[in-house]
Amino acid sequence: MEFEKGYVEPNIEKTLGEVVFVRAEKERVKRDETGAETGELLERRYDLTCVQGGFTVVLPASSEKVTANFGDAVTLVNPTFMAYAIQNEGDNRANVDIKVMAEAIKVGGSQLKTPPVSNPATSQKDEKKN
User: Fold this and answer.
1) Domains of the chain as residue ranges with CATH
2) With 92 labelled, which of 54, 108, 118, 126 sits at a CA distance of 20 to 30 A?
């Protein structure tokens, strides 16, 4: 199978729906050859959730730190998705997952841009009362 652009562009609204902030993870920092942290920031990580389930998004070190509360709606800025697999040691199976990366996270936005759906049964009951 070949793709015109070499990849599939994600439809964020249909794939994720509303994205909600869960928590900030410990920032990833560079380590020297002894394993000691150098203090140089490599990336920022945040746990989010959506209709598909929980996931971690990775932001570049140059991005601003996100300050949000648990349950705040957020919007991912220019997200990309990368599939990867890590082979299990000693057998021919692998753990497969998707890495989500973005340029930034905006707090207060929503990925879901559809209007609320009214319940026709409720609307008809209200009309009969009048």
Assistant:
1) 12-129 (2.40.50.390)
2) 54
